């Protein structure tokens, strides 16, 4: 969609940057207003005016504003990160998402283990089982979870470290095609 503001008599940012006369049917004018000179400068530096013009010509008119916004974003990111550009930002976000999914799985496992311990403590409170001061499950009488009487107990943090080190989860996307910045 073209901007709803009426065109003023001044040149658009693209024509000012290119030092040319802005015509009433300038294809840049609806998307690069005169009060946004840096917007076009960034796009021009990365893509060039003729490439932007060709891209706008190939895109249906109702999608041109979104196209320009995308070009502006891509240009800004490319100027910030000349090597990776948008792919670097995407890879970084995907990597962060994988880390957060891993953390969520680990937190759920810890919660499930904790709830199981509480439930087992409630069921075995009469048999002498419980938690010691370090968070170890101990059993004074009948054994707990296959551990024999007199065993030192199960350290919950060690169990979670084992889960953390051996956790395998499914990726819904492939990150093998590029390096993370």
UniProtKB/TrEMBL annotation:
It comes from the Eukaryota. PROSITE patterns: LOB. Residues 10-111 form the LOB domain. InterPro entries: LOB. It holds the Pfam family LOB. PANTHER family: LOB DOMAIN-CONTAINING PROTEIN 21 (PTHR31301:SF24), LOB DOMAIN-CONTAINING PROTEIN 4-RELATED (PTHR31301). Belongs to the LOB domain-containing protein family. This is LOB domain-containing protein. It comes from Handroanthus impetiginosus.
């Amino acid at each position: 969609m073209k901007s709803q503001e009426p065109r003023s008599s001044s040149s658009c940012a693209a024509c000012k940057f290119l030092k040319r006369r802005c015509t009433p049917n300038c294809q840049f004018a609806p998307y690069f207003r005169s009060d946004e000179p840096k917007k076009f400068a960034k796009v021009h530096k990365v893509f060039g005016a003729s490439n932007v013009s060709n891209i706008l010509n190939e895109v249906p008119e109702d999608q041109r504003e979104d196209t320009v916004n995308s070009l502006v974003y891509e240009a800004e990111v490319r100027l910030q990160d000349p090597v990776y550009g948008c792919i670097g930002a995407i890879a970084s976000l995907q990597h962060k998402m994988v880390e957060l999914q891993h953390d969520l799985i680990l937190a759920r496992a810890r919660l499930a283990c904790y709830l199981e311990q509480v439930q087992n403590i409630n069921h075995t409170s009469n048999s002498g089982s419980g938690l010691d001061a370090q968070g170890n499950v101990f059993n004074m009488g009948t054994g707990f979870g296959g551990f024999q009487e007199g065993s030192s107990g199960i350290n919950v943090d060690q169990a979670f470290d084992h889960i953390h080190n051996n956790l395998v989860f499914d990726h819904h996307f492939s990150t093998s095609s590029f390096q993370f910045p």
